[in-house]
Amino acid sequence: MSFLNKVRNSFLSACIGFLPVAMLQSCSDDDNGPNYPNGTYMADWAEVNDAAIEGEIMIFNFEATAPWTAASTEEWCKVLSPEGVAGQSTLRLEIAPNTSLKGRSTEVTISVAGAAEQAVVAVRQGDGDIEHGSGTYREVNKWVYDYMAEMYLWNDNIPKLELDYSVDYQSFLKSMLDGVASFDNANKDDGVLIGDQRIYFTYIDSNAPISRGVGDQINDSGIMSIGGASFEVEGGGMALGLVIRLVAPDTEAAKAGIKRGDFITKVNGITVTESNYQSLASSIFKGNVTVTVNDVDFTGSAAVVTPRGDISFSSSAYTDPAIYKASVATTASGKKVGYLLHMGFDMAYDEQMIDIFNQFKTEGIDELIIDLRYNPGGMVLSSTVLGTLVAGSQHKDKIYLRTTYNSARTAKGEKGEYFIGNPSNPENPEGYQNIAKALDAAVGLKRVFVITSGTTASASELLINGLRGIGIEVNTIGLRTLGKNAGMEGIRQSFLRYVFTFYPITFYCENAQGFRDYAGGFPADLELDETSIYPGDFGTSADYLSRAALQWADTGQKPSTGRSRSAAGTISALDVTDNDNAFRRMGGSIVMRGE
Questions:
Q1: Are 261 and 244 in contact (CB under 8 A)?
Q2: Is the four-CA dihedral 199, 523, 510, 589 of positive or negative sign?
Q3: How far apart are CA 504 and CA 202, in angstroms?
Q4: What is the pLDDT of residues 89-104, one digit of tens each?
Q5: 313: which residues sit within 8 A by CB, 6+ positions away?
Q6: Are 576 and 227 spatial neighbours (Cβ–Cβ below 8 Å)?
Q7: Is 576 within 8 Å of 278 (Cβ atoms)?
Q8: How far apart are CA 252 and CA 340, in angstroms?
Q9: What's the pLDDT tens digit per position in 534-589?
Q10: Which of 68, 169, 424, 524 sits CB 3.0–4.6 Å from 112 for a disulfide?
Q11: Is the distance from CB of 343 to CB of 215 less than 8 angstroms?
């Protein structure tokens, strides 16, 4: 209630208490006029009165010309003061918490004796937007909504969604995606089903805290993937331990000499068992440990395990690079085969990739293996650079990727095209010169061998689809790819001193032949599962998938599954579920707007 109203109420109370009845009308006429049709005046309720979502006691003051009663028809709005007398009065309401999915409202009526009309107090709780959060990220959520409403590939039903802008930005985004999915699963191509849960491709990345502390830095050993394994050893008996599957270059573990294929039987002096291998693997990921390392060599169905000693390594902060390994192998027939272990499409590594292909070209490679088994995607421009490095000048200016948008943008004639060897692109009007630079280093092959898995996605699948679209033979080895045939146009903005980068799915990826129907993933031309195979050095015959690719490249004939498996070391694999960093990278087919 305003200060002026309080003064006026005090004055009116004095009039009512001390003046004759005949003078009452005269005193009140000066402030409120001669008539009070509903019997109330000087009320401090508004036209619409908003109640807190979590519930509250609402108190309204007013003056009544006679005794009165109040009533509510809704159980969630309980009248605590159902009656009163003439003069200064108070209406008290108890509002229950709103846990529903929609806003709600009611009208509390006040009936004053002798009045021709009822006074009405309108109470609203939610106004259609249920407020369950603190409201800290309301501005961020509005930014997300506006961009989704315009750009999201399945944006038709977004205006129909009922959303809570008060929650954190991750929860808000998920509520939008779930809301679109509720309309006949319209955005089914935005994500994959894991069990009965959909994991969306659309995501938002930020250094703003939700549940973690501000400024947290990830520090670990640099080991990206570990497997548990047991297998038969030569001379009888079984070995049980942890197998290193992937180590990031130039990290603490790599500097200490830990490599793919190392077999760990003790961690900090504790022997690995079936009951503790999960927790011991977690310790290895974190670093600051001493491990007992062994070399393993399969000479048939049984293995020879040779102790190598104890190795200690710490933890530190590091940048996970896009390129883990590049090498050239000479096959039995004398062919030179280039090998590239590519982990993610990051433009910061494009010049390094060009340098690697310059070396491939200098060494005169005849065939090329691109290992994308751990690659979830990344920047479209970087994928176009790699496509150009493979295809060469004979395919210059051919379409590598064509992007198609939602119905509204399509109706306006919007489209995006990326070309082999041509720097022009829809992201940057000045072009991306590394695409043109890649032509000089291109190996210009008619076929390529690509190692794939269920992690191979987005810009990695774009490479397969884009090269096939211009007539290059792409032979895939491993497992079916993830199946992400759509991409993102990312935007970046600062709020609350934090940086937010938003990557919604906004376009389908088509090749030069107009093909985009790979939401189910690309099946492997040679299907091989390395889960129960002992890991060997990437790009060599010691690695199960690399060996098959090298054999295919050498002979020109696809190996049989049985022959490929017979030369491998078979193990009983134990899943390590904690901190498998190789499968936690952010991926995508990403286009940045306004960069």
A1: yes
A2: positive
A3: 4
A4: 999 999 998 877 577 8
A5: 221, 252, 253, 255, 256, 258, 287, 288, 289
A6: yes
A7: yes
A8: 23
A9: 999 999 999 999 999 999 999 999 998 755 554 568 888 887 765 555 555 556 78
A10: 68
A11: no
Yes or no: say if 90 and 60 are a contact pair by the CB < 8 Å rule: yes
List Cβ neighbours of 173 (8 Å cut-off, separation of 6 or more). 144, 202, 203, 204
Query: In degrees, to the nearest 5, what angle opens at C-alpha 301 toward C-alphas 298 and 307?
Result: 35
Structure tokens at 10: 């005090």
The residue written with tokens 């590594």 in the block is 349
pLDDT digits (tens, 9 = 90+) for 309-342: 999 999 999 888 999 999 999 999 999 999 999 9
Structure tokens that stand for 88 in this block = 């200064």
Judge contact between 62 and 45, C-beta under 8 A.
Answer: yes
**Strand ranges (DSSP E) for 355-458?**
367-371, 377-379, 399-404, 416-419, 447-452
Contact 399, 366 (CB under 8 A): no
Distance between CA atoms of 9 and 13, rounded to whole angstroms?
6
pTM: 0.77
Burial category of 558 from C-beta neighbours within 10 Å (exposed 0-12, middle 13-18, buried 19 and up): middle
Give yes or no for a contact between 143 and 165, defined as CB atoms under 8 angstroms apart: no
* CA–CA dist 214, 180 (Å, integer): 32
Look up residue 49 and give its two tokens.
């009165």
Question: Residue 105 and residue 128: Cα distance in Å, rounded?
Answer: 10
Helix (H), strand (E) at residue 90: strand 87-95
**Which H helix or E strand runs over 120?**
strand 119-125
203 - beta bridge partners? 503
Report the Cα–Cα distance between both ends of the chain, in Å, rounded.
Answer: 51
All residues at 6 or more sequence positions from 566 whose CB lies less than 8 Å from its CB, including other chains:
none
CB 484 within 8 A of CB 377: yes
- DSSP secondary structure of 287-354: --EEEEEEEEEESSSSEEEEEEEEEEE--B-----SEEEEEEEE-TTS-EEEEEEE--B-GGGHHHHH
Q: Distance from CA of residue 184 to its chain's centroid?
A: 22
